[in-house]
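fructokinase
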Amino acid sequence: MLGAIEAGGTKIVCAVAPKEALTQIAERISIPTGTPQETMPKIIAFFKNYQIEAIGIGSFGPIDVDPSSPTYGFITNTPKLAWKHFDFLGTMKKAFAVPYFWTTDVNAAAFGELKHGSAVGNENCIYITVGTGIGGGVVLNGKVIEGKGHPEIGHIYINQLVHDSFEGNCPYHKNCLEGLAAGPAIEARAGKPAQNLAADNPAWELEAHYLAEACVNYTLSFSPEKIIFGGGVMKQAHLFPLVREKFTELLNGYLPISQVDQYIVPCALQDNAGIVGCLALAKETL
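Predicted structure tokens:
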């Protein structure tokens, strides 16, 4: 059996599945993300019920993914103060002497979509989640992209439209992509949550423009075969045609992307993208 841990800011999902059929999850649990002292024993207890060959971990971040770093495997400067500078991977290794794949939750989701979701048959994809924040994972040539750090493509700077006077609400960058286009930014402008806005609300045109501009930047930087969107905001199906239209307009024929409806797509695995990705990454370690 293979193990998976998708560590989010509000809950941590643990799952096990046979390595021959990763989408056939044998058992999964959801644990509230309390303090490490409260949460880690529950994670470890879950996996002790199984003969685990490898574990994939996709964690909220920032995290240290540099194997040469003395804090490799740590959650680093997270706003969740109880987890700041916590050795997540080291704690797991003390409990289970198996191979691990350690990465971000969005990298895991990108890999899950590549192997079992919207990017099956491809080698390159980008996964973007648009919700309370905006995060992204990148897979190129079948491998998640990491270096001294991991991609933070939800915080790229984009050109704010002149008629948009909103200052942005990213606590670090104000008017980066997350600051202008995440759920709280939509709510701050419109006065109510995104899920309560009508499909013809002008807020969606603005949202589509910013997401499309980001897609142009990702296309020019990474040359993915698919750009996959997930997260609560992207459950508004009417947003996809708007993003594709704006993307085509902004790219302006510079690159030959003809079937935009098959290029910018919703995630197929929905809320399972991260956990299936962690299982797939666990398999990679074998």
